[in-house]
Amino acid sequence: MQVYTTETEQVNAIKRFFFTNGKYLAVGLVLGIGALVGWRYWLTHQTNQLHNTAAVFEGLNNSLASGSKEGVAAVEKFANETDNVYGVMADLELAKQAVAQNNLAQAEKNLLTASSKAKDENMQTLSNLRLARVQLAEDKTDAALKTLELVKGKGWQVMVEDIRGDILAKKGDIAGARAAYSTGLGLDGPQVIKNLMKIKLNNLSN
After folding, report:
1. 40-67 mean pLDDT
2. Using the 8-state DSSP alphabet, how is residue 83 labeled?
3. For residues 53, 58, 64 and 66, what is the CA-based torsion angle, rounded to 10 degrees?
4. Per the database record, which ranges form the Ancillary SecYEG translocon subunit/Cell division coordinator CpoB TPR domain (predicted)?
C-alpha cells in the first residue's frame, strides 16, 4: 500500500483514481440507481395491481352471491386468470357456492386448486381445512386424513384435531376420535371449537 505524506499527494492520488476508474464508478452508480428505481416502480405497480384486483374481486363476489350462471362463470374466469391471493379467495368462494348447491365434487376441485395456488401459508391452510371437511362429507375419509397432514401451523391444530376426530368417528374408530378430541381440548385455540369438541367427546362416551 502506497503512503502519501502530504495533503497535495493525497489529493493528486484521489484525482488519478477517479480519472482511471471514474467511468466504471459512473456506470455502477447508474446501474445501482436504475435498479433501485426499477424495484420501486415494480413495488408500486404490484401494489396498484393488487388494489385493482381487489376491486374486481369484490364486484365479482357480489355477483356470485346471486347464484346466477353468469356470475359463477365470471368468478371462474377470474380465478383461472388470477395468480395471487384474490385468485385463491375466488376459488374458496366458488367452493362455498358449490357446497351450498350440494355439488361436493366441484367444491373439492375448487379447494384443491386454491391449495395448490396459495403462496401464503395461512391461505393454504384454510384451503386444506375446508378441503378435508368436504372430503369427509364425500366419505373420502382416508383422503381427508392425508389432507390434514398438510396443515403444520400450531395455531390451526385445534381445528385439525376437531376435523380428525370427526373423520375417525365416521370411520368407526371411536378410540382414535376420542384421542383426537382430547388432544384438541388440551391445545390453545378458539373456545367455540373446543366447546363443540367437548360435546362430541361426551357423545362418544355415551
Report:
1. 59
2. -
3. -150
4. 15-205
Give the chain's length. 206
The three cell numbers locating residue 101: 348447491
Model confidence at 49, pLDDT cuts 50, 70, 90, reads: low
Residue 106: Cβ-neighbour burial (10 angstroms; 0-12, 13-18, 19+): middle
Whole-number Cα distances in Å, 4 to 10, 18, 20, 22, 148 = 6, 17, 18, 21, 71
**The whole model's pTM is what?**
0.71
Percent of the chain with pLDDT over 90: 38
- Rounded Cα–Cα distance for residues 131 and 109 (Å): 9
Q: Inter-axis angle of helices 174-185 and 191-205, to 10 degrees? A: 150
